[in-house]
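Technical note accompanying the year-one report. For the benefit of new consortium partners, we illustrate the data format agreed upon in the data management plan: each record pairs a sequence with a structure-token string. No post-processing was applied to the example shown here.
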Amino acid sequence: MLIRRRRSRQRMSARAAWAALVTVLLAALSLTVTSPASAATYPTQVYAGNNVRAGASTSFRVVATTTSTARMQCWRDLQVVSGSPRWFLVELSNGQEGFIHSSLTVPSTQTSTPKCDTLQRVRAADWALAQLGKTYDDTGRQVTWAPGPDKEWSGDCLAFVNHSYRIAGHTGLGAATAIGQWNSPPAGAIKMTGLLPRYGDPVFTNIPSVGHTAIYIGGTSMIGTQGVDGSRLPIEIYSLYNKYPTYQGYLKLGS
């Protein structure tokens, strides 16, 4: 009888050990299957191959094309398309940002986001895009660094970015040159390298002496002023890499 009891206890212990092992394996399998990093990071499903724009309207320039998933940043109601005025600023799974119409997303996968007007970087980009094609600033600004005539944008890349952020409610980026701004950013700013910027972030390139800065508007595009003093070049959208291949990074200012 004693031997039978010992064998019975041994069988029960073996079963308990196997049950514990199976529980651990199932838990591990569950974590692997239900919690992929990509799904947690980019929960919104997007119809691939469609236009991503610099603003919430088909009148804005195409800066990228959609991938299959996206991270929603904010929403804005503007141009009505397919019966809806709703647009979303999204970050695609390849890191690019821009606006897409709500009809390009799968409704059941949309996530809660703030209104775009609450994001300072979007307000800065809004004002910058409204200056597209202009040669002069017509807001009566007072500039502290103006290598060319007062109110002239050509040659005033830092003044243009700085004023965009002041209009958006920022205290200003300071510094006398773009390279100076990059080397000594304002309090609270975070220098970012090796990644694509967020929509509306100031971007910097290391051209000789003074550097260059503009505002990122998704894809690989930025908006700003360029050219030497007196050239009277208008505000334009151009490539983050092709025009100035010495891209350094961007400043992250707030949300």
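Partners are asked to follow this layout when depositing records. Residues 2-34 form the longest helix (33 residues).
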